[in-house]
């Protein structure tokens, strides 16, 4: 799988996320309060709602529509109405850029 | 549009999917991400404070009701206890189903379970039902939580002031679920993997009610049911009074919460019981905002929303004539004007609904 340059490290606030679209798919890229970076699919597994407007708290992302919650490090669905985990993708940081393996 | 089919399995449900009304993209007021994050921030403090007050008051009122039972002097205390059980628990159920009341998840979950029991709403069934209500707010055939269907039948509204129809529905579902059955309509919004949880909770509840009944029989008194169960009836009026204000008389089958939801200014006691859900347009537009932040959200968004009703009475002055007209004309609804500072309604998305508006 190729590494794709997604954004700069400073494009994401600490404890927040941004949307990244690539190759006809959409992703969510997270920056934790410890400045670690993570990547998951962009849309909630419950319904077709993008997570970009959701709330990041510690290592969790909460969907803006129905408050489903996921651990964005593992993709695990933590709270209904989501029952299916998010896909996650490897992330690395090089020279101030966030790269994701997709 | 004419006659509406509110069944989740009916013609309007199918039509909503075919026309794109189901799971549509809804209008949202533009707000910078930084401000939105501030509004969404969670806290435990406000909900812990309110929960201590709520359960403390319930214990005091129920204690005085029991102490003065069966004299007439117990009545005021039962009325107060009933509103907290049969109405305040509705708003606790609601906020905790969103998971926004407390920052700490287990606190949301505990209060959600207690409130669900008081309201006789299976916590699993209704979590999914309410998610659908937010996806497809007042979309006929898709939203399972439309309080007043058209044509309006006032007798149903009056019966529900005392929780009659809701309680019959809740008890019927509880018994069916306890027998291992999940209804066909419920099955449209509850994932198969979650259905065993529905059944397990229903069986626990049946045991609690059976224990209450056993105590009532043993003591030859309805007093146990005055504490558990009956307040769902005699205390429901405040929930219904506030709940009808949410969407009644406004548009259905639109994708803009400014057209189908209503914000109403209320007195502090009603806002405590209702946990600020009087800011209902704001809540539907941004369900991530916790109840204690909604007054602030209202101030931030009001430039883009219809003017709120200035009181509960003002809300009903608007609703009751509209409901009266909807008895004869199912297509009639109130269209609320937007302030000059607001983004206009996207008329192209609401062409089916608009001709009947006033």
Tags for this entry?
heterodimer, A: 102 residues, mainly beta, Rieske Iron-sulfur Protein, four-stranded antiparallel β-sheet, 11 strands, 47% strand, globular, B: 358 residues, mainly alpha
The whole-number mean of residue pLDDT values of chain B reads: 94
**Radius of gyration of CA atoms of chain B, rounded to a whole number:** 21 Å
Radius of gyration of chain A: 12 Å
Classified in CATH, the superfamily of chain A is Rieske [2Fe-2S] iron-sulphur domain
Average pLDDT for all residues of chain A: 95
What percent of residues of chain A adopt helix (DSSP H or I)?
under 10%
Assign the structural class of chain A, choosing from mainly alpha, mainly beta, alpha/beta, alpha+beta, or little secondary structure.
mainly beta
CATH architecture of chain A: 3-layer Sandwich
What is the string of SSEs of chain A from the N terminus onward? EEEEEEEEEEE
Please tell me the total number of domains of chain A. 1
| CATH-assigned fold name of chain A | Rieske Iron-sulfur Protein
At the first level of CATH, the class of chain A is: Mainly Beta
Instruction: Give a count of the beta strands of chain B, DSSP E runs of length 2 or more.
Output: 0
Oligomer: heterodimer
Structure report:
The complex is a heterodimer of chains A (102) and B (358). Chain A is built from no helices and eleven strands. With 102 residues, chain A is mainly beta. In chain A, a hairpin with a 5-residue loop joins β7 and β8. The termini of chain A are close together. The mean pLDDT of chain A is 95. Chain B has one domain. Chains A and B meet through loops of A and α2 and α6 of B.
Quick take:
With 102 residues, chain A is an all-beta fold. Chain A has a four-stranded antiparallel beta sheet with strand order 2-3-4-9, with no helix packed on it. Chain B has one domain.
């Amino acid at each position: 799988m190729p590494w794709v340059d997604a954004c700069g490290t400073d494009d994401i606030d600490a404890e927040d996320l941004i949307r990244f679209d690539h190759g006809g798919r959409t992703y969510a890229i997270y920056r934790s309060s410890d400045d670690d970076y993570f990547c998951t699919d962009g849309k909630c597994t419950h319904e077709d709602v993008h997570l970009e407007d959701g709330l990041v708290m510690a290592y969790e992302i909460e969907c803006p529509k129905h408050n489903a919650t996921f651990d964005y490090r593992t993709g695990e669905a933590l709270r209904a109405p989501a029952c299916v985990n998010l896909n996650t993708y490897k992330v690395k940081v090089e020279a101030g850029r966030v790269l994701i393996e997709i | 549009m004419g006659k509406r089919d509110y069944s989740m399995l009916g013609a309007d449900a199918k039509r909503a999917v075919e026309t794109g009304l189901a799971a549509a993209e809804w209008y949202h007021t533009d707000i910078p991400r930084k401000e939105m994050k501030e509004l969404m921030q969670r806290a435990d403090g406000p909900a812990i404070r309110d929960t201590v007050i709520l359960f403390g008051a319930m214990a005091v009122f129920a204690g005085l009701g029991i102490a003065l039972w069966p004299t007439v002097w117990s009545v005021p205390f039962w009325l107060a206890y009933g509103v907290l059980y049969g109405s305040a628990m509705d708003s606790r159920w609601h906020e905790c189903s969103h998971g926004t009341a407390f920052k700490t998840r287990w606190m949301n979950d505990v209060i959600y379970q207690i409130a669900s029991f008081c309201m006789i709403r299976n916590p699993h069934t209704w979590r999914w039902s309410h998610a659908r209500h937010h996806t497809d707010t007042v979309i006929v055939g898709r939203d399972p939580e439309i309080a007043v269907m058209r044509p309006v039948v006032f007798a149903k509204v009056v019966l529900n002031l005392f929780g009659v129809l809701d309680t019959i529905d809740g008890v019927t579902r509880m018994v069916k679920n306890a027998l291992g059955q999940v209804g066909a309509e419920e099955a449209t919004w509850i994932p198969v993997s979650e259905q065993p949880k529905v059944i397990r909770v229903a069986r626990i509840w049946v045991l609690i009610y059976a224990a209450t009944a056993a105590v009532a029989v043993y003591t030859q008194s309805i007093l146990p049911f005055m504490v558990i169960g009956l307040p769902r009836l005699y205390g429901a009026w405040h929930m219904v009074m506030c709940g009808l204000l949410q969407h009644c008389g406004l548009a259905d089958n639109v994708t803009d919460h400014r057209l189908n939801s209503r914000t109403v200014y209320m007195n502090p006691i009603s806002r405590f019981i209702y946990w600020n859900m009087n800011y209902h347009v704001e809540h539907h537009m941004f369900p991530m905002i916790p109840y204690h932040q909604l007054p602030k959200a209202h101030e931030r968004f009001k430039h883009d929303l219809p003017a709120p009703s200035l009181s509960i009475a003002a809300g009903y002055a608007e609703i009751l004539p509209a409901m009266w007209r909807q008895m004869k004309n199912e297509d009639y609804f109130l269209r609320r004007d937007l302030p000059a500072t607001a983004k206009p309604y996207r008329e192209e998305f609401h062409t089916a609904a608009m001709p009947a508006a006033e």
